[in-house]
Structure formats: structure tokens, C-alpha cells
Write a structure and sequence with these properties.
Elements (H helix, E strand, L loop, with lengths): L3 H15 L16 H10 L13 H23 L5
Length: 85
């Protein structure tokens, strides 16, 4: 025998369905449907984990990597004895 709450839910679901709403039951409801998108959004916004003030912006890290790569290329050219261009 359904409880009064269950009867009320069924009535509400019937009314919503009649009004054109797509009604799902609780067992088939996917609570994690937007979780991946929400996590990725927060990660790219820098809001997923605590940010530390001593962290440098990503642009500075990219610049440092480029400088390191350039230095490695120059060292290789020097080792092989190629003339500079």
C-alpha cells in the first residue's frame, strides 16, 4: 500500500507528464549526468582545488619551458659544430 507521500508523488508525476514534462522515476535518475562537465569546468577555472599564492601563472611556466627548449637546441647545435643561423 503506497504511503501518502508516494501517492502525492505519483499524482504530481501524472500532472507533470500531462503538462508535457519528461518525468523520471528515482531509480532510473542519473544524478551524475553533469558531474564530469562540472568538474572539468571548475578545473579550467582554477576552482577545483585550493590555489596557493606562490603559484605562478601558467604563462610563466610556458615561457620557462620554451627558454629551456631553446637552450637545449643551442647546446645541441654547439655540440655538433653547426654554424649559427
Amino acid at each position: 500500500m503506497p504511503t501518502p507521500e508516494q501517492k502525492a508523488r505519483l499524482k504530481i508525476d501524472e500532472l507533470l507528464a500531462a503538462a508535457g514534462w519528461d518525468v523520471q522515476d528515482r531509480q532510473s535518475l542519473n544524478l551524475y549526468a553533469g558531474l564530469r562537465r562540472a568538474i572539468l569546468k571548475r578545473a579550467f577555472e582554477g576552482r577545483l582545488v585550493e590555489q596557493y599564492p606562490e603559484d605562478k601563472p601558467a604563462e610563466k611556466l610556458v615561457d620557462r619551458i620554451r627558454r629551456d627548449q631553446d637552450a637545449i637546441k643551442r647546446d645541441r647545435v654547439d655540440q655538433l659544430g653547426f654554424p649559427e643561423m
